[in-house]
Amino acid sequence: MLTLQGLFRLAVLPIIALLLVQQKAFPLINLPHLQPYVSWLPVSIQSVIVSNRPSVTFSQGTVVGSTIRDTLKNPVDAFRGIRYALPPVGDRRFRRAEPIGASDNIIDASRFGPSCPGKQLLPIKGDSGNSEDCLTVNVFRPHGIEGKLPVAVYVHGGAYNRGTASMHNTASMVGWSDQPFIGVTFNYR
Questions:
Q1: Which residues pair with 142 in a beta bridge?
Q2: Which residues in the chain land under pLDDT 70?
Q3: Which DSSP symbol is given to 56?
Q4: Dihedral through CA 124, CA 153, CA 181, CA 110, nearest 10?
Q5: What are the respective helix, strand and coil percentages of the chain, to the nearest 5?
Q6: Which of 10, 39, 132, 139 is deepest in the core (most CB within 10 A)?
Q7: Please, which residues have CB within 8 angstroms of residue 148's CB and are 6 or more apart in sequence?
Q8: Residue 149 Cα distances to 17, 68, 140, 141, 184, angstroms
């Protein structure tokens, strides 16, 4: 008997194959919005879909970011919303953060993670709402530069009851700098 999930896969597979062919023919097409729908595909096929985006592989998996070009002097590779600890919910609430285990997952790091709960005085551009599952880090590097660079870490203020990593435009700071460096922001509770 065919399940709803099986039917979905049968219907979507030809469409995804067509998009993959398009992706190879037109490598400038960016398809990050497909990632949630193709997570059940083998990693080798998933990687084709996100191949034109900046990526870094480490023990948690392959983190796939985005390149910000907007109004910056120099383009910046942004890896946003990367979890640095297991979600502090349920039995882990109000306890020491626990590390994330090794994996071969592809992690979509194209947008900021949610802010930790708190009182916001003003709306913050780029804020993704709030959640107790908010322990994320954001890394910004100059596009096309490999190797070791100095690192600047921005710790947002807020007296432990407001604020978020997205309240500082770190990408702009990295993109307009005359000296290349890596910028890091993070949410904390």
A1: 76
A2: 1-51, 120-128
A3: E
A4: -40
A5: 25, 20, 55
A6: 139
A7: none
A8: 39, 19, 11, 9, 12
